[in-house]
Amino acid sequence: MRSSDVCHIAVFVDQCKGALSHLLDEEMIQYISGLPHVVSCSQDEDLSSSQRFEKLTRRLSRGRADRVVIVGGSPRVYEGSFRRVGVTASLNPYMFLVANIREQVAWVTPDAEKAKDKAKAVVAKTVQAARSLTPIEQEKFEILKEAVVIGGGVVGIRAASALADANIRVTLLTRAKDIGGKAIQLSHFYDRPDEVSSWFAKQVEGVKKHPNVKLETSVELKGFEGHLGNYRFHIEDLLGRRRVVKGAAVVLATGYDVVPNTEGIFGHKRFISPPQMEAMLQDVGKPLVDEKGKPIQTVTFILDLVNQTIKIDSANAVKNAMLLRKDHGCTVYVVCRDVKVSLDGMEKQYRKTREMGVIFIKYDDPPKFSLVNGQINLEVKEVSTQMRGEEYNLSILSDLVVVSEEFVASKDNPLLADILGIPLPKEGYLMEDNPQFTQIRANRRGVFMAGGCRYPQPLEETLVEAEAAASGVTELLSRGMYVYDLAVAEIDPAKCAACLTCPRVCPHSAIVVEGYAEKNIYVTGGYEKEFKWRAARVLPTQCYGCGVCVGSCPTKAITLKHLTDTEISLRLGG
Amino acid sequence: MESSSPRIVAFCCDRSGYVAADMAGQLGMALPVGLEIIRVPCAGRIDALHMLQALENGADGVLIVACHEENCQSLTGNLRAKARMGYVHGIMEKIGLEKERLEICNLASNDGAKFAETVRKKSEDLERLGPSPIK
Hints:
With 574 residues, chain A is an alpha/beta fold. Chain A is built from 15 helices and 28 strands. Chain B is built from four helices and four strands. Chain B has a four-stranded parallel β-sheet, with helices on both faces. Chain B starts with 7 loop residues before the first strand and ends in a 6-residue tail after the last helix. The model of chain B has no long low-confidence stretch (mean pLDDT 92). Chains A and B meet through helix 4, helix 5, helix 14 and helix 15 of A and helix 1, strand 2, helix 2 and helix 3 of B.
């Protein structure tokens, strides 16, 4: 190995506040100092403190060591510190390895003698593997201060205006004739006194007038290429003319689809959908009457026949039940499997609604409906009293029954996911990178998502998500420069057979196949000169460094820079 | 390492296996002395070659510690590792090595106890199988 001739390893021994004192005695230190290529061996009480770590690293800058092996606890403890302070000692942040003799030896090996032998073996292997380390450089490029938002619903509008306010030029793409979407169907917010319609009109106007926003209505997304900081969107208008829109990042806000529930008896005019209910409540002063002019006295909400895992219906039912009770004096029943009120402030409102006399009934078996004298009769077995050993078969006559519409993933999601190169799970909603921590990011860098394309949520929550996605984009773009480590996979074009395995396996759409002009090892007659050779290339900005392509490459053309095959085989003792 | 404790190479995914191994340590669970942990960014990084190389270099058993299926950050990394393991099983059969020496274990990052249990069980199994003939 070439680099082994010149390698000088500095070993830092971390006593981990005495946790390793029984292993790290004089003899052990002697042993470590005697290992090949080790030029110095310094000890410290507690290297997890970054100040002590920095001190040790500074001392290093005077020596001739070019890589560091830390003997101590888990690498997760030191990685952050070393990446930060390694540079001050003119060391490459990736020229270090950790021999974890705390979690892997000291704490799991009861026998002291065996523990010592094992610790020696672990340190020796790590020092050996450190020979294979190569410096990993940092790169940066200027990032466009432009973003694209796809979808002209309330989420798209909110995200676009948040981005525009942050001084980012936004192009809002929508296939509809005008921006708008489903949110306009709602009458009120549950958590603030505004009416949705007036608030929404203000938002739409704000976006249309904003100097940083460019609207592209009636367009279809046809193609998508490029990388973080410089994506290109090919769009087609109604006349079939194609254009290219540029953006450094994209927010997907394409929403979900709604399937009305009008089968069988649900088609009767006394069954209405939640948007119809909202429309009836739009005017506060107007009395509620049916088509014959008779006042509506009893309203029942049926929840959880569909959308059992979505809380939109529950939240809207609680909100509307309160309005019906307060403004119109109706008798209101909410019949559901579970009341889903896990929204900010909703619990309180749910309790208030119950105190006002709205009756919540829980069922296990779906209720039965029948028509009695022009009214809807509903028969249901109430189960919330079951734990007391009581069961009630209830029969409710109501003037109006509100039946939920079914929310499904948009039928265009497969096409969208295909164009954008992001995965689509079985359920059909777009997939987030991590459902707990990064809900607003797709697992392709620079692709953000918010709202119903990820999962249907109540308007109030979806707005928060839109703002989160916008701030994610702002954070990325506001620095002007995108700085990244080249701790990624790299393809040797001379070895690449362009078999297309790696673009297929790459989970983050980070590999492209490009044409090359020179060094064609597969050259045959008849090819154009400038396009005689193809090879795959990893886009370093997109690569997460997972190494799936490395293991899949049949010609072993790919190297993972921060964990090379050489390092693994040295660790395996080869 | 001494002969009584079989040598096990465990490739641990950085997102689950390695964290679980750390956790097993923090819980102070006794692990077999012959265990060697190799940290990889994703189980999909582990090549068939590495599995064979581990066996070639005298490991009695190889363990791939990956995330639960359908729970991989790299979408199918753990499934690819499993598929490669199947391929290596074929080779092992041909050269007369027991298939049980190479196994995959799916766990979550908070499964320190499961990690310890799996490794201990693996160690016992390997003791029953006897040392690897390649040594």
